[in-house]
Design goal:
Layout (H helix, E strand, L loop, with lengths): L2 E5 L9 E7 L4 H11 L13 E6 L3 E3 L2 E3 L3 E5 L4 E6 L7 H13 L4 H11 L11 H9 L15 E7 L4 H12 L4 E10 L5 E8 L25 H14 L5 E3 H11 L5 H11 L17 E5 L2 E4 L2 H4 L1 E2 L5 E2 L1
Parallel strand pairs: 7-8, 8-9
Antiparallel strand pairs: 1-2, 2-9, 3-6, 4-5, 6-7, 9-10, 11-13, 12-13, 14-15
């Protein structure tokens, strides 16, 4: 795969020249694992999935009296456990057995055990120091909901293998396991740099053959996903525009957007709608958790009430939800 940077001076790009970026070797443990920990959204190729919160790194997992150390453990918006195994270079065939051993261990984790892992991980993050998993989860995924959200943690597992290359044999095994409801995804990555010393990361998701992985405990749970052709960002924006076309004050609420979309798409994931609003709301405190594909669409007035963002009126805001000069 070749990656190029477009160098240009004219606004219409007509004088553009393609500058090739060269592949670079990285110290996997020192570099890429850190980058992934800082950027969990790169695992989520489906725009309906907007974020993962990590709760552990190199956690000690005991399986059949042997010690295992999953690279990263996380939780998604629905409380599902996410496990990531990273490999430098080409993923060996043994990685399948390794990730399944992690799954066998993680499948049995209770909320109390997940909470212990989480609180230990966040000992070094002052923002969540002393907070339990359920509190952190609600703060990130449901910050505007006053009442306590009931989440069934570890309802199913989501497994990721990340490497620079994967064999067709491993692909076939992953596809086969997907058919039986084992949710394994492969993420291929490459690191490039150009003559200016700028770095570029290319990622590619190997899609599962099955359209949906069933819950291991409740096949009718809210983990059923919408599989429409429109990106979730577009679905939410269209719903907002429809609501505002009938509004006299130019305002809309989170509930109105959710209700509007659910009427049209009954199986749509409600938490994904909330996360998309946080991502595209310039001044929302939770925007910093959703940095993948942000757009400056909305402005939070108060609580769950919003309006459209007006740059001349509202000023400039960054990806952290902070106002800048």
């Amino acid at each position: 795969m070749a990656l190029y940077r477009l160098n240009y001076e004219k606004d219409d790009l007509s004088d553009g020249v393609l500058e090739k970026a060269d592949r670079q070797d990285v110290d996997y443990e020192r570099d890429f694992e850190n980058w992934l920990e800082n950027s969990p959204h790169i695992l989520l190729d489906n725009e309906e999935d907007l974020n993962i919160i990590w709760i552990g790194r190199q956690v000690t997992a005991v399986y059949e009296d042997r010690y295992k150390y999953p690279d990263l453990i996380g939780i998604d918006a629905e409380g599902n456990v996410v496990i990531v195994e990273l490999k430098k270079g080409k993923a060996p065939r043994e990685v399948i057995a390794q990730i399944l051993e992690y799954a066998a261990w993680a499948e049995q984790l209770t909320y109390e055990q997940l909470n212990i892992i989480t609180m230990k991980y966040f000992e070094r993050k002052n923002e969540y120091l002393g907070m339990e998993l359920s509190e952190i989860h609600q703060k990130i995924f449901y910050p505007d909901v006053d009442e306590s959200i009931s989440i069934t943690f570890n309802n199913r597992l989501r497994l990721f293998i990340v490497a620079e290359e994967i064999s067709n044999t491993i692909k076939d095994i992953i596809y086969y396991l997907n058919k039986f409801g084992i949710d394994i995804t492969f993420l291929k990555y490459d690191v490039f740099s150009n003559e200016s010393g700028e770095y570029y990361i290319s990622t590619e998701i190997e899609e599962a053959k099955t359209s949906m992985v069933k819950s291991k405990k409740n096949s009718s749970s809210n983990s059923v996903r919408w599989n429409g052709d429109e990106p979730i960002k577009t679905v939410v924006k269209n719903a907002v525009d429809t609501i505002l076309s009938k509004s006299s004050d130019g305002q809309f609420t989170m509930k109105e957007v959710i209700d509007s979309i659910i009427i049209k798409y009954p199986d749509f994931n409600k938490s994904s709608i909330r996360c998309q609003l946080y991502s595209d709301c310039v001044n929302h405190n939770s925007r910093k958790y959703y940095k993948s594909g942000q757009m400056d669409y909305y402005f939070q007035i108060q609580g769950t009430t919003y309006r459209l963002y007006e740059k001349n009126k509202d000023g400039n805001w960054n990806s952290e939800g902070q106002q800048i000069n």
